[in-house]
Amino acid sequence: MKKAKAKENVKGNVKANAKAKVTYAPFEVADYLDSEEAIAEYLSLAARDENPGILLKALGDVAKARGMAEVAKASGLGRESLYKTLAPGAKARFETIATIMRALNVGFSVESRLPVRAKMSGEPPRKGGILEALRRSPLVGSDIAPVRQFKAGRKVDRV
């Protein structure tokens, strides 16, 4: 008799637990991208992944955090085009990704995966940097001036 009651209690508890469903809100990364530091770190980690879809997803999350309509307007793309470009499996062109990144006020940074060596081919490093190396190159010659002459009216020389 006790076993029968125990089975009924177990069945009753299972039924009671089955009726009470627990629901969870979907996780939105965009809700947590509330600072420039968080956005930069998130995109940096996504860019390190070998799967290019991860970076597209991360850019989409950042665009949602900033507002898709504003990002579309700043990038010059239509809102629908922006959604299609950042959709999973999209084969976006580099030019389009660069445009979206400019609209998000972020950029690329390149770093070597190999340790940088101070000596190359057994030679000690020389002073002068890249300009000196280019001057010594037989392909370039010595016509490179290390200092650019100031020319009035050039936009790049205005400060």
Query: Approximately how much helix is present in the residues?
Result: 40-55%
Report strand %.
under 5%
Form type: elongated
The SSE string, one letter per element, is HHHHHHH
Given the structure, what is the number of helices?
7
| Major sheet size, sense and barrel closure | none
Radius of gyration: 29 Å
Average residue-wise pLDDT: 78
Secondary-structure-derived class:
mainly alpha
pLDDT under 50 segments (min length 5)? none
Kindly state the number of beta strands: 0
Q: Alpha-carbon distance between the termini?
A: 94 Å
Jot down its keywords.
159 residues; mainly alpha; 7 helices; 50% helix; 0% strand
What does this structure look like?
With 159 residues, the protein is mainly α. The protein has a domain at 31-103. Helices cover 50% and strands 0% of the residues. It is built from seven helices and no strands. The protein has helices at residues 2-19, 36-48, 52-66, 68-75, 79-85, 94-103, 129-136. The longest helix has 18 residues, at 2-19. It is elongated, with a radius of gyration of 29 Å.
Topology of helices and strands:
Layout: H1 2-19, H2 36-48, H3 52-66, H4 68-75, H5 79-85, H6 94-103, H7 129-136
Helix pairs in contact: 2-3, 4-5, 4-6
